[in-house]
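MODEL INPUT / OUTPUT PAIR
PAIR INDEX: 1
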Amino acid sequence: MTGTIHSLSNQDQIAYWNGEAGARWVAEQERLDAMMAATTIALLDAADPQAGEHVLDVGCGCGTTSIALMESVGPNGKVLGLDVSAPMLEVARRRGREADLSGLTFQEADAATASLSPGTFDLLSSRFGVMFFADPVVAFRNLRRALKPSGRLAFVCWRDWRQNEWVRVPVMAVQPHVPPQPPLAPEDPGPFAFARIARLRTILAASGFDAITVRPLNGSGLFGETLEEGVQYLSGFGPISRMLGPASELERARAMSALREALRPFAAQGSIMFGLAQWLVTARVA
């Protein structure tokens, strides 16, 4: 891959998630929650939150996982959802109030540098929220300090982009028609930063975790009921949106045409369903 899913610094990530990306995630919250429903269930099963526990939800977004965790730990438990996106946290707080979950709070903060009380949490959980750190060891050490000595973590992250149809198919279609972008190294922050198991294990071990398990989690997601719905969704969201950003009007038209043709065989099957290739990771404080 030649940089189509490029790296952003921590500050750039914060700006990105407080701008167009955050607004888009808010607008697409229900679709994304439905797409990730099976992933969320698998994460909760692995995390195994217990009644009365204190949980830290990293990259909580619009609050779906935080609410599910709060329902699991019950009225004597607490959940703190962390995210850098003010637009998504606004939705999360509203949803928390509507659910009348008094033990649920949200904080706008970068988990890599957030000031968290040491030894507070029983569980660190995250659904696709931990792959964007500029220095993941520093970030995970900060989070590990917030865990109790008996603390544990569970998170879901993406496997290699080539194993994820939702990225591979549109990217390979669009890439020849848009301006080249800076190369993305495997260790750069981004959705696929933890694609390699060896690197993932090394980061967690260096951060003070052991009993590390990494297992594949496969699923599928609906990216459009029709061809045009799929084209509009994928072109306005995620890596394709970024690829189209610097494109000229002519380049964009060609890229959109190529994307439409790449999606056509999937739409012919009734809807656009793509495979989701993920890692489900668990560990304990060493």
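PAIR INDEX: 2
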Amino acid sequence: MDSNRLNELAINDSGLIFDPSTGTISTCNPVGTLIIQSLRQGKTLLEVRDTVLEKYDGQSGVVENDIIEFCRELKKMGFVGND
């Protein structure tokens, strides 16, 4: 996944996301923040899933689907590309 756009975002520990290029402010929960941080590090979907499962309880398939859906939302917001 293209993390270049994600690297431009300012994210605080509370999940407040600021996009300096548009002035847009969004929020996400701690899991969303962890996903964004993992994507910024260039992790694959499976690596992101494993990172989430190390910190939070959940079923692998459900977590993977939730990550995919979250990435779709990031795409709609223009934070990630088509990768």
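PAIR 2 NOTE: Strands lie at 10-11, 16-19, 24-27.
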